[in-house]
Amino acid sequence: MPVSLEHYLAFVAASLILLVIPGPTIIMVISQALAHGRRVALASVAGVGLGDLIATSLSLAGAGALLATSGTLFSVLKLIGAAYLIWIGFKMWRAPVMIPDVAVEANAPAVRPMTIFRDSFLVTALNPKGILFFVAFVPQFIDPARPYLPQAAIFVGTFTVLGIANAIAFALAADRARRAVRRPGVLRTATRAGGSLLMMAGLAAALTRRTA
């Protein structure tokens, strides 16, 4: 077996603890579910999953080491990701909300799941701190006596699957809350709160310096 059961279970437990704490991507998934429902939220989940897969794979393929040594590259990626996060939060603030089968605002433009997928993917993939975190996180569970690549592949796949499952759980819970509330004012407030949190997260990311 490429990974010892002890190391694998420890990795799963640590990953679950980290994943249940909502970050910007989960806030985005929840806000999309509250504003537009399950179908759009699941498109966001798919984007988060692919973004996690790409980011974690790149981190273990050497991109993490490159980001750790290149302050300029880290800053560029950080600013691009932060700006995109702010833009998505701004769009969510302005977007009309929907209740099941009813448009809350007249002539509300249709929300394209592919657009939501793209936004979620880019926010997740363009997060240099996430890449650096994974570089620091995974080696804690690597067994030096076993081949590195199979272990890394298993950990990347496991983390991605757990991340998708976690995002789906949040999306379905938010969609259930949306269907239970069915009050446009409440849903609009919740969606704008999520958009505000995303903009604040983007500003915080842009202003935070990389630790040495």
Helix content, binned percent:
over 70%
Mean pLDDT over the residues: 75
Note the run of SSEs as H and E: HHHHEEHHHH
Major sheet attributes: 2 strands, antiparallel
Question: How many separate domains?
Answer: 1
Largest beta sheet: strand ordering: 1-2
User: Kindly, what is the distance between the CA atoms of the first and last residues, rounded to a whole number of angstroms?
Assistant: 37 Å
Distinct helical segment count = 8
- The backbone outline, from C-alpha atoms, is globular
Unreliable stretches (pLDDT < 50, length at least 5) are: 101-108
The chain-level structural class is: mainly alpha
Beta-strand portion reads under 5%
Pfam families: LysE
Subcellular location: Cell membrane
Keywords: Cell membrane, Membrane, Transmembrane, Transmembrane helix
GO molecular function: amino acid transmembrane transporter activity
Task: Please write out the topology.
Layout: H1 5-19, H2 24-36, H3 38-69, H4 71-94, E1 98-99, E2 102-103, H5 113-125, H6 128-137, H7 148-181, H8 184-207
Antiparallel strand pairs: 1-2
Helix pairs in contact: 1-7, 2-3, 2-5, 2-7, 2-8, 3-5, 3-6, 3-7, 4-5, 4-8
Task: Give a description of the structure.
- The protein has 212 residues and is mainly alpha-helical.
- It has one domain (5-16, 23-207).
- It has helices at 5-19, 24-36, 38-69, 71-94, 113-125, 128-137, 148-181, 184-207; strands at residues 98-99, 102-103.
- The protein has a two-stranded antiparallel ribbon with strand order 1-2.
- Helix 3 crosses helix 6 (128-137).
- The longest helix has 34 residues, at 148-181.
- It starts with a helix and ends in a 5-residue tail after the last helix.
